[in-house]
Amino acid sequence: MTEIEKAQLDMKLEVVVLGVSDVDRAKAFYENLGWRLDANFAAGDFHAVQVTPHNSPASIIFGKGIPSPEPGSARGLVLAVEDVVAARDELIGHGVDVSEVFHYAGGPFNITVGENPRVSGPDPERRSYYSFASFEDADGNGWLLQEITTRLPGREWKLAQARTTDVATLAELLHETEEHHGSYERTHAKHHWWDWYAPYLSARQNGSSPEEAAAAADRYMEENG
To answer: Which of its termini does the chain have fewer beta carbons within 10 Å around, N or C?
Structure first.
């Protein structure tokens, strides 16, 4: 690691702001995709919604009364997927109009080759980064599914060593977990307490509120009970 890299602070792309003409319609569209609803604030002429694609570190925000581009002006927003065909099928299952899978004649994102730079079908060699499908939301904001199966060297940040939780904080978190587990334990069949504790603690350590963590633990037990 260079001295410059050591001195750099983390700067993580957190949010992309979209322009939409109908906030409730846009909210319904993205929730229908199964994207997580993080925020839905409305007060007078102000209305802001934040949603996050499944397992994505970055979110999108749209609304009224917030600085945003013209509705439908976003182009080429990229969603990385491991299997573009499966991702396309999933979107179609949600009622979304998705293009056929395609690749660019001149390579990823190159629209300078020929009258029609998109070639039907996935990349013949099925190379990582080369296969796409596209769709739009109700305002015409354009999304691309890009199949990424193996990232090129240097394309992933090395994760910093996880911070150690001090004993007092850990004890407090375990006490909180026990309190929330009690209500679940009283209304459900006999089970191993650690199966509920693990998803609760994981969710709390990843920034979820106690209520969100309890819901995550409940879901885990329901799906894996």
So the answer is: N
Angle at 34 between CA 28 and CA 35, to 5 degrees: 80
pLDDT in tens, 112-143: 998 899 999 999 999 999 999 999 999 999 99
Q: Which amino acid would we find at residue 209?
A: S
Distances (CA, A) of 157 to 126, 154, 160: 25, 7, 9
CA distance 220 to 178: 17
Phi, psi values for residue 23, rounded to 5°: -60, -45
CA 19 to chain centre: 19
Q: Residue 14: exposed, middle, or buried by beta-carbon count in 10 A (0-12, 13-18, 19+)?
A: exposed
CA distance 129 to 117: 16
Tell me the C-alpha distance between 122 and 129, whole Å.
11
Q: Both tokens of residue 52?
A: 């996050």
Global pTM reads: 0.68
